[in-house]
Amino acid sequence: MNQENCILISNQKNWVEQAAKDQLCGVGRLPGVIRAVGLPDLHPGKTPVGMAVLSQGRFYPHLIGNDIGCGMSLFKTEVKQKKFKMDKWVTRLNSIRGLEDIPCDIPYEEACPIRDFGTIGAGNHFAEFQCLDQVYDGDRAEKLGLMDGKIFLLIHSGSRGYGQEILSRFYSPDGLKEGTSKADAYLAEHDNALLWAGRNRLAAAVKLLDYLNVDSRTERLTDSCHNYVEQTREGWLHRKGSVSAGHHALVIPGSRGSLTYVCVPGRDTHISLDSISHGAGRKWARSICKSRIDRKYDRNSIRSTRYKSQVVCHDTNLLFAEAPEAYKNVEQVMESLLEYGLVDVVATLRPLITFKG
């Protein structure tokens, strides 16, 4: 990076698209922006994804995007791995197109701003049943609750259409000046979106387990969002596709065909604005995926992975758009994070069933 207030955390093995670097530099030139950091999963979007941005005097809702509060929750279920029924669960899940098909009670007094509460959404959102693959730090894995032989459920979702509604009302290319009534109004709704995004992930988990006729009690082991803004001592810290290093633990998934890394933040994350990658990051635009790998798969093979896990998704275009080849190598992303001392790996989780819809 040749711009003084921009930094890219990566290494030579980890490919980052030039368009993403250019977008990051553009963000760094916005009024009030003090520093912009690209993480190893940086890739282009409407704004760059996989970044943390510090500004003073004003903040920018469009840098956070339209899915305020999007994040990942890792739940430990009451289902023992030895009692997991792959074929039975896949058959059951194939009988619905999405979680919208399952009724949902809203156990909160406040009015719910999410139209399809307890759903995942399209794009890269997913629900994935996982099991423990490899342990790197036994003590920490034990404390995190990873060693009980249970099935895990990782939910990646956000505030659904609520975040888009907020952004459409508050978008301004010049950002929002701190202390103004408009900025305060945005922050109030932003915080409400964070609250309901977390509730939405929990509701989606309970829905899935209920529908599978298993014990729906869960223990939320980690919960982190990666699209939001917070006020710090130094200014306004935007995260778009990045996770706060303030969490006791976090998950970094790759794609449906890779492992998920359970990590703890490193001791000194100042270089990355106390932010950590939220995943592997896209390698290909969705529009070109099918043409590149159409001949590699048939209608059945596209629904399985090298880990012998199964993918439940009724949208063929989405299956190709979210294929493992469309994403960067998560191992290379992890190498970069480890090289910079941003994380320590506790364990890896292996996919069993990935549900899209």
UniProtKB/TrEMBL annotation:
InterPro entries: RtcB, RtcB-like_sf, RtcB2. It comes from the Bacteria. It catalyses: a 3'-end 3'-phospho-ribonucleotide-RNA + a 5'-end dephospho-ribonucleoside-RNA + GTP = a ribonucleotidyl-ribonucleotide-RNA + GMP + diphosphate. Keywords: GTP-binding, Ligase, Manganese, Metal-binding, Nucleotide-binding, RNA repair. Its cofactor is Mn(2+). Its EC number is 6.5.1.8. It holds the Pfam family RtcB. This is 3'-phosphate/5'-hydroxy nucleic acid ligase.
